[in-house]
Queue: 3 jobs
Job 1
Amino acid sequence: MSSEQIPSAAPSLSRLIQELQKLPGIGPKSAQRLAYYLIRLPDDDAYALADAITAVKQQIVLCAECQNLTDDSPCSICSDSRRDQDVVCVVEDPLDVLALERTRCFRGLYHVLHGVISPLNGIGPEQLKLKELYARLSGKQVQELVIATNATLEGEATAMYIRRQLAGSELKITHLARGLPVGGALEYTDELTLSRAFQGRQEL
Ligand SMILES: [Zn+2]
């Protein structure tokens, strides 16, 4: 059932329902429930939500160094001089940075690819933040690259691709240990498993 099938809904309400339906995991029924919930919210709360969406769209940029989402570039991790500048951990997306930061076992820097190589979905290496990665590696004193892509076919293929691209470089290239569930996303891995995988990382 789509929102167009609710003849009684006012146009502004239909519009809100349609926008909410575009969110991941939100079907037509949930969109309607959310819309009616938002209508009943106190004005301040509803405008605060709308403002937060506007602010995030206006302020969030990619960190020029690690490509993570940030309000200010370079981000707080890249500009933290206490972090180990020799090690860069490559992840698929910003949520993986949060997952790894929660483990507190990694004190180096990150590089966010914003995806994985996926020929079926038409995503090739040129659509990932790989150029930016190679530029970082050539310019700075990075000694170790930890590849922490997800344990999926695409994640593995992307890790292999990066390793091949960097073959012959002096860089030590490691990979998270195989304690991670196959097919599993870093984001949903519990902190203990993730920190063990990090500590047990192996050279590729
Ligand atoms: Zn950064």
Job 2
Amino acid sequence: MKIKLGLLYGGKSAEHKVSLQTALAVTKAINHDKYEVHPIYITETGEWVRGTVLAGPLETVAELEINEKGTAISPVSLNTNMFALSDINNEEQLDVIFPLLHGPNGEDGTVQGLLELLNIPYVGNGVLASAAGMDKVVMKQLFAQAGLEQVQYVSFIRREWEGNREEAYAKVEDALGYPCFVKPANLGSSVGISKCDNRQELEKAFEEAFLFDRKVIVEEAAVGREVEIGVLGNDNPSCSVVGEILPKAAFYDYKAKYEDGSTGLAIPADISEDVYEEMKTLAIKAFKAIDGSGLVRADFFLTKEGKLIINEVNTMPGFTPFSMFPLLWKHAGVEYSALIETLVDLALQRHEEKQQIKHTM
Ligand SMILES: Nc1ncnc2c1ncn2[C@@H]1O[C@H](COP(=O)(O)OP(=O)(O)O)[C@@H](O)[C@H]1O
Ligand SMILES: [Mg+2]
């Protein structure tokens, strides 16, 4: 019996196209003798469309963009979302779902919550870890609690900023000074993020960041190399080798990440054994601080003095075969297809364990 695997991809998000690339790569790498792959496409307008079982690997992204016409599944109500997942005929009840989604509505616990309600096993982090990993303020608070070193920061909700902008800017200048980074609290892919060197840039950066969120975080600029590590597992996770981002842009922005290929990756990063050991310890601490499961990519700044400052964890890191996370595992001896299988196994294990939990007295 094949495992019925739902591939959930696309999404109403800035990372729609990245998600399609990832899904295409997964259909190419996955063992179709072991898994029966069911595509579930979320269109750019947020409609969920269930496709027919794949016969094998796909060749083009276009094949994944299932036409919503002629299917019974359309608008974005809770019921129709469930409809797309748990099949009407019951024959096609999925064994596990692999959400290949990034950012809000994909990586933030919302889809995870839907899958919890449906009691379908799914790959990756649960509701809490996903939500905590998406909100840069909450994530920082959890990291602080776990004793992880971080940059100084301040945060504002829109009302505070609108109420007294001058006070907000003064607070940033007092607490952090320049240069600083202004970011929407709940996004990814560097969207809405600006580096500011003066008051004028700060004002513009606030306007920009508040377009994307009602909460904004401002951070002191860290000076150091950007190093990243993969964490894989549930209760007893393990770490990959370390990779380094070698940016040509001013910082690792959306364009550098996805469009112009201006960023190089060094894998493994040229770091000492001591730094590597320390980074593994810190990454697992971070994973546990958000109650992670499945996978995270933990991102750090490494200062000249050899100090590791955590920047963030990504609960659904870039997952094409050319993305950092799969490449880190490849160098650790885990090929892309094996990585996919491991993640599915971890999802099934976590779900199995959850079924043992008592729900009544
Ligand atoms: N406090 C900081 N100091 C120095 N560089 C930063 C800082 N915050 C962000 N950056 C730069 O901006 C990039 C994107 O910021 P990040 O917080 O990782 O957002 P995202 O969640 O969008 O990836 C980082 O990879 C880094 O290059
Ligand atoms: Mg980042």
Job 3
Amino acid sequence: MPPCPRLPSLLFALATGAAFILAPSVFAADVERGKDIYEVCAACHGDLGQGGKRGEYPRLAGQRDTYLTNQLKAFRDRSRINLPMFPYTQERELSEADMEDLAAYLSGIELSSAYPVFKDTDDALTRLTAMEKVMIIPRAEGNTVAGATLYRDECQDCHDKTGRGRGRIPRLAGQYTSYLTKQMASFIRKERLHDEKTPGGVLNQLSEQNLKDIMAYITTLQ
Ligand code: HEC
Ligand code: HEC
């Protein structure tokens, strides 16, 4: 009999002092379905939706429900280009109900925001894997004071003071910096649509240093 794929990670989480907790909504029926469907996604996005390869695969755990569903639809329709994921989001693979169940499951996963406790005997890989499973993202380089002001003036109305987003607007806090930087570049090149109130868009009006400072500030919001 093949071993249960989720068991090792669950044991691991328990052994490391519950690296994650599941929000109460996780126990609704559609969430359980979402969890089952998610098995095909885990190879890239991690067994808890923690992401991987230092942000090549973004973190999905704790991301906003509506935003996740919208992105899956955008990948399917190719209004957001994502070649690695395109085959997984086709109608015969993933129905709209599947997308909603996945989003409900993922948005309910709460990664721990506490540093894991290590034993002297833990090797580098064990430490790295445990660090990936907590919400903590390494501090990004940049001026966090300038970044805080820019964030308050230019981003906070939509992405929220806490960086956790609202409604269909995504959470940025706790997401890999490299991934966010890549997305901003694709908004600026107009390969992906941001939510623009100003002609040209808010991101196009900021310098590279401004964006770096904002990213540095966001890594303090976890
Ligand atoms: C082969 C690897 C791979 C698999 C399997 C995969 N993804 Fe992805 N996914 C990616 C990559 C790479 C990106 C980032 C694309 C980019 O940089 O724009 C991504 C991005 C996403 C995003 C956008 C996140 C954001 O913050 O905007 C969502 C949502 C997502 N994936 C959900 C899923 C779900 C649900 C599944 C399973 C049905 C899945 N992925 C399977 C590689 C994968
Ligand atoms: C008017 C509202 C609004 C403002 C202001 C705004 N955003 Fe956004 N942002 C959005 C929306 C909506 C999306 C999701 C777009 C989509 O659905 O694909 C988004 C997505 C993003 C993403 C991609 C996240 C991901 O997981 O892929 C990044 C990065 C981002 N915004 C950064 C910023 C920064 C930095 C600022 C301030 C300089 C900012 N945004 C200001 C509405 C806004």
